[in-house]
Amino acid sequence: MIARLLFMAMLLLASWPASAADRVYNAQVARLTNGMIVVVIPAHRTPALTHMVWYKAGAGEEPAGQSGIAHFLEHLMFKGTPNIQPGQFSKIIQRMGGNDNAFTSWDYTAYFQTVPKERLSDVMKMEAERMNNLTPRVSDVFSERQVVIEERNQNLDGDPGALLGERMRNVLFPNHPYGKPILGWGPEMRTLKWVDALAFYKKWYAPDNAVLVISGDTTLAEVLPLAQSIYGALPSENVPSRKRPVSPKLEGDVKVTYAREDVRQPMWQFMFRVPSVRENPKAALTLELLEDLLGGSTGRLYRQLVIKEKLATSVGVAYNPYAWDDGSWGFYAVPADGVSLDKIAAGVDRVMKDVADKGFTDSEIKLSVARLQDAAVYARDSLAGPAMNIGYAMAVGVALEDVETWPARLAALTLNDMNDAVKTYLVGQKGVTGWLLPKEPAGKEASK
Of 74, 144, 166, 291, which residue is the catalytic one? Predict the structure, then answer.
C-alpha cells in the first residue's frame, strides 16, 4: 500500500498546476511513467464517459510518395489484433451500449469511444492492444485501401468545392504537408501497402506520443490506476520529434479557378496564412474573436453584404487555431443571382477596409466575447465536447492551462488589441483566391 501511494504521488507531482478559478473544464492531468499523458475531465451528470486516444502524428508525418498513409492506418486500426477479430472492434463497443469512431488530420489521429462508466477498463484494454499489436489480414489491407480510395472519390473528387479547396491549400502551403490532402493524392493512394502503414505505425503509435483524454463520470484518482496497469504496461518508443519542411511565404496573390459542369452555384474564396495558437497564443486568441466579429449571422460581413447590400446569399470566415505550423484564415461568399465574383471580392475588401479604418466598437467586442464564453460553457454539457476541445489543443502542443483559461483570456482582450489585429493579420495579406464556376457542357456552344 505504501509503495502504491508513493507511486501515485509521483504521478501527481508530474501533473500540471491547477487553479479552480476561471477554468472551463477543471481537468485533472498526469503523465504515466512511459510518457503517456492522461487527462480526466470530471462530469458526473450521467454514468457514462468518452474515452479518447490522440496520437501526435497525422498526414503531416507521412513520408514522401505515401500521401494518405496516416488515414489508411486509421482504417486498418479496426482490422484486428490477437484478441479482437477483424471488424469486431466497433461491434464490441456497440454491444456495450456505446459508439466509437476515429479521424485523421494533418497533425494528429484520434480514436474515441463513448460507453457506460463500468466499461472503461474494457475499452482501455482494447485501445491499448491495437496501439501495440495490430494484425490485419492481407485481404483486409487490400479491401480497406479500396475503401479509402472510394472515400476520396466521394468526398473530394465528387465535390467541386472540396477540390477547389484542395488546390488552394496546395498553392498556399508549398513544400509543406498542409499543401496535400489528408486523404492523399489518388495515384499515391493506389500504391499504399501494409508495409508502409506498418512503418508509420511502429514509428508514431506509442504511449509516449499519445494523449489519453477521458471525459465523464470519473476522476483522475479512479482513472490513474487503470491507466498505469493497462497503458503503462506498454513500452515507450522514444518517438522522434516532428520535422517539418519550411514552407516559403507567398510573394504575391495567386488565383485558382475551377470550373465543372456539375457546379450549380458559383463561390468565391480567399485564403491566407496566419499564426496558429502554438506559434502565437495571443494572436490566435484575437483571430478567434475576429472570426466571430466578422463571420456568422451576426458578423460585419453578413450584416453588410447579405442583409444590407444583398450582394451575397452567404458570407463568412473560417479559422482553425489548432495547428502545429501556420494556421490559415479563409473568407468565403456565395453571390446572389446576377452578382459577379469580382463584385463579391470588392465587397469583402470594402468591409475589411472600413473595419481597419474605423475599428470595432466596445459593444461589438463585449457581445462577441459573451457569445464565445457562452459556447465554451455549453460545451461542458456533452461528454465528447470537452474531450475533443482539449484533445485538439494538446495534440498540437498547446498547454492545458491555455484551454482552461481561454474564456478569461478572451475577456482580457481590449478594443485596441482587436483593432490592431485586423490591420496586422487580416488586411493586405498575400494569399490564394479561389473561384468555383459552372462550366458549359462540351458541345453546347456549337449546338446553338
Answer: 74
